[in-house]
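Help needed: design a sequence for this.
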C-alpha cells in the first residue's frame, strides 16, 4: 500500500486522513500533541461510519485500521510517498516545518502543503529538496468536497506534480493544476470576488444577507454544483461562449468595474449583516451547523457519484 504521512491532525488533517485511508492508503497521523492525534483518529472513525451510511465508504472499520498515530515526526515520515502538511497558516511556520520535512522525509517523497494562501515558492526556495515541494490546497471539508488545487513553485519538478496528481486521483480527489503561481490560487480568488460583491449588496441596502444567500443556495449554487462558470454560460446563449460574451460582456464588465472601490468587509457592512443575521455567533453554533452541512454534502456527493457524466 502507498503510505501517506499526515502532519497536523486538526480539521483538515483528519479529513485528509479520512480521504486517503478510505481509498486504500496506509496513513501515519502525526501531531505535536499526541493526545490530539489520538482524538483525531477517533473522530475519523465517526466520519467513516457516516460516509458509509451514504454509500461513500465500503469498509469503514478496515479504513480506520489503516490509520495509525505516529510516535514522532520521523516515524510518520518513514517510507512515505506523500507528506500532507497541515500546520499553522503563517510563512514562518511553513518555512520551519518544510525545512524539517525536507531533512527527514525519504528523498523521493512529495512534500505538499494544505495552505490556503501561501505560495510554495515562499516556503521552499532555500530547501535542498525544493523540486519536490508544492501546494495541494483542499476545500473544507476535503473528505466531502473533492477538489484539490496543485500549485507548484517555479522550480517544482513537473514529474513531481504529475505523480502527486495520480495519487490524489487514486484517493478520489479532483485535482487541478495551476500553470503558474497566483496568491490565493483559483478557488479562493473566485470565492473572494463573490464574497466581496455579496457584502457590497447588503452594505448598499440592495438586498438582505438572507436573500443574497438564497440567490446562491437556490439559484447559482444549483447550477454550479454540476457545472462550472464556463460550462454555465455556454448554455445561456444560442452560439455558446463567444455568443454569450458578445451579448452580455459589456454589461458584465460594467458591473464588475462598479464593485472595485472601498472595503466590502468593513465594520459598518459587517454590522449591517449581523444586525439581521439569525442566531448568536458561537463555537457551538458553528459545530452544529457544520455537522448539518457535512451530512448534506455527503448526500450531494453520493448523488453526484451516481449521476451520469454530461454529454460532450
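Sure. Designed sequence:
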Amino acid at each position: 500500500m502507498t503510505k501517506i504521512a499526515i502532519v497536523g491532525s486538526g480539521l483538515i488533517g483528519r479529513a485528509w486522513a479520512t480521504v486517503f485511508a478510505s481509498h486504500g492508503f496506509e496513513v501515519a497521523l502525526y501531531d505535536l500533541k499526541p493526545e490530539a492525534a489520538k482524538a483525531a483518529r477517533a473522530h475519523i472513525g465517526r466520519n467513516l461510519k457516516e460516509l458509509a451510511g451514504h454509500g461513500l465508504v465500503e469498509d469503514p472499520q478496515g479504513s480506520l485500521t489503516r490509520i495509525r498515530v505516529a510516535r514522532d515526526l520521523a516515524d510518520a515520515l518513514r517510507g512515505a510517498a506523500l507528506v500532507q502538511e497541515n500546520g499553522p497558516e503563517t510563512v514562518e511556520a511553513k518555512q520551519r516545518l518544510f525545512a524539517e520535512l525536507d531533512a527527514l522525509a525519504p528523498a523521493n517523497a512529495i512534500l505538499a502543503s494544505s495552505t490556503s494562501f501561501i505560495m510554495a515558492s515562499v516556503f521552499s526556495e532555500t530547501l535542498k529538496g525544493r523540486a519536490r515541494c508544492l501546494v495541494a490546497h483542499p476545500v473544507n471539508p476535503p473528505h466531502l468536497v473533492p477538489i484539490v488545487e496543485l500549485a507548484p513553485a517555479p522550480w517544482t519538478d513537473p514529474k513531481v506534480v504529475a505523480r502527486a496528481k495520480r495519487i490524489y486521483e487514486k484517493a478520489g480527489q479532483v485535482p487541478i493544476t495551476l500553470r503558474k503561481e497566483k496568491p490565493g490560487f483559483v478557488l479562493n480568488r473566485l470565492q473572494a470576488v463573490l464574497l466581496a460583491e455579496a457584502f457590497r449588496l447588503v452594505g448598499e441596502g440592495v438586498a438582505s444577507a438572507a436573500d443574497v444567500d438564497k440567490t446562491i443556495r437556490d439559484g447559482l449554487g444549483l447550477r454550479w454544483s454540476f457545472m462550472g462558470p464556463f460550462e454555465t454560460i455556454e448554455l445561456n446563449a444560442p452560439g455558446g461562449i463567444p455568443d454569450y460574451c458578445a451579448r452580455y460582456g459589456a454589461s458584465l464588465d460594467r458591473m464588475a468595474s462598479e464593485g472595485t472601490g472601498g472595503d466590502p468587509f468593513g465594520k459598518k457592512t459587517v454590522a449591517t449583516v449581523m444586525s439581521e443575521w439569525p442566531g448568536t455567533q458561537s463555537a457551538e453554533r458553528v459545530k452544529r451547523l457544520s455537522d448539518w452541512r457535512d451530512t448534506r454534502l455527503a448526500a450531494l456527493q453520493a448523488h453526484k457519484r451516481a449521476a451520469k457524466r454530461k454529454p460532450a
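The radius of gyration is 21 Å.
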